[in-house]
Amino acid sequence: MRTTREYSRRDLLSWTPACIALAVAAASTIPRVAAAQPKVAKATVQYQDTPKAGHQCSGCSNFVAPGSCKVVAGTISPHGWCSIWTPK
Asked: Partner of 47 for a Cys bridge, out of 15, 32, 56, 82, CB 3.0 to 4.6 A?
């Protein structure tokens, strides 16, 4: 008496879509770590060391005291301004 079953190529091919779907579903449950975005150059965002229209870096949500920014590279003045200024 034989206890193992031999599978045909047709059997294996018919299971392939289900196996792929299972693998994709399993992979989607793996938590991913967000990659850090590179900072942009000051010239790209028209950075200036003086405020503009009452807006200055110290009032921006991207400003990191005492002198940096989450988005713009380099040293940032709290009294500066750039085109991506966003209120806190």
From this structure: 82
Rounded CA-CA distance 40/9 in Å is 54
40 three-state secondary structure: strand
Please give the average per-residue pLDDT across 77-86, as a whole number: 96
Spatial distance between the Cα atoms of 39 and 73, rounded to a whole number of angstroms:
5
**Residue 61 backbone zone (phi > 0: left; psi -120 to 50: alpha; other: beta):** alpha
71 Cβ neighbours under 8 A, 6+ residues apart: 39, 40, 45, 62, 84
Write the CA distances from 87 to 20, 26, 41, 56, 63, integer angstroms.
46, 41, 20, 9, 10
> Residue with structure tokens 């110290």?
58
Q: Other C-beta atoms within 10 Å of 69: how many?
A: 22
Rounded (5°) CA angle 28-32-33? 175
